[in-house]
Fold Helix-turn-helix transcriptional regulator.
Amino acid sequence: MTLPLSTAEEAHKAVADRLMRMMEDADLSGARLAALCGWDRSKTHRIINRKTIPKPVDIRAWCAACGKPEEAEALIETTRTAKTLYVQWTQYLKGGLSKAQHSSIYQETRAFRVYSCGVLPGMLQTEPYARGILRTIRHFRNLPDDVEDAVQARLERSDDVIQGSHQVSILMEESALYMPMTELPQHAGQLEHFLSVIGRPNLSFGIIPKMSRRSVWPIETFYAFDDREVQVETLTAMVRVTNPSEINVYLSAFAQMARAAVYGPKAKALIRTALDACEA
């Protein structure tokens, strides 16, 4: 499995490599380039070794010093794109939980593939469960309280997807059924809701049993939007994967995990067993 950071890292590496080659082609040493740019020589080495991500002003100064000012804007754009591929949650959520629920990619996507290793999938969340999970996120991330607005925005987004003509394929680990991220009544209500949606014509709902033989190990929760983008949820960041070869790895992993899952009556049986555990 390709590491989720690789798309962003490759973009930063491409910029650093091009700056280094530019310096070499101009027959400049690190010290000489630093002098021309007006900074300490250590900064040159930090940029080349990707210890420091260059700012636009740094890239323009570097290109000018090497006699290649015309290359600056393309390199700046590559750096900006890389920053959007790996976004820390503190930055992604700085506008609040409600704002984070709005994304044009949901309207533009026809086929969704969702794999969840823990939290019950957002597209199928009930209002009480969504409220509980968003409150949990708010407290963990120490965010302003816009939970009610976020709940309504999430439900509206989910309705547009589930009630529309989209195709939705969801895979989740059986263990996720036993991970209450809210109060037990809310969790149990969410499991009851799963029972009511299984069988919808535009929804494929699979559960991977705990003892199922698998060819792909459990990985981070991810959302695939058609075959053009995958969003991976790590503890510290939301990672956007846009490289086609990496997207194909995620889609291949999804297909292999789907073969290990159970559906229909068998999936419902697993959910009912988890429901019994909620009442024990």
User: Anything to note?
Assistant: The chain has two domains: 6-85, 93-279. Residues 6-25 form the longest helix (20 residues).
